[in-house]
Amino acid sequence: MRPHPIYHRCALTPDCRAMIPIDHLMCRPHWRRVPREIKGRVTLTYRRRSADWEVYAQAVRDAKAAVWNTLGRNR
Ligand SMILES: [Zn+2]
Questions:
Q1: Which member of 12, 23, 58, 60 has the greatest number of CB atoms within 10 A?
Q2: Considering the entire predicted model, what is its pTM?
Q3: Residues 13-26: pLDDT tens digits?
Q4: Which of 66, 55, 53 is nearest to 11 (CA)?
């Protein structure tokens, strides 16, 4: 193991235990469920997240909500 973390949990934790690269938000099966528009927003705002954390956080919330929806849950 490297001292610097290069993997973290999928954003759908605690239900998903997949370990993914630090620059990915979700594991592949979950990311596939995110609508294209939101994916684009996450990718775009991720690059600028140090400048504008809130728009990134909002994009992440939308992405998670979209996945929960496809899984038939509400959170
Ligand atoms: Zn996942």
A1: 12
A2: 0.85
A3: 888 999 999 999 99
A4: 66
Q: What residue spans define the domains of the chain?
A: 7-70
Backbone region of residue 72 per phi and psi (left: phi > 0; alpha: psi in -120 to 50; beta: other values): left
The Å distance, Cα 69 to ligand 1 centre, comes to 14
Q: How far is the CA of 14 from the centre of ligand 1 (A)?
A: 9
pLDDT in tens, 29-68: 999 999 999 999 999 999 999 999 999 999 999 999 999 9
**Tokens coding 75:** 């959170």
For residue 74, report the distance from its CA to the centre of ligand 1, in Å.
Answer: 16
Question: How far, in Å, is the centroid of ligand 1 from the Cα of 63?
Answer: 12
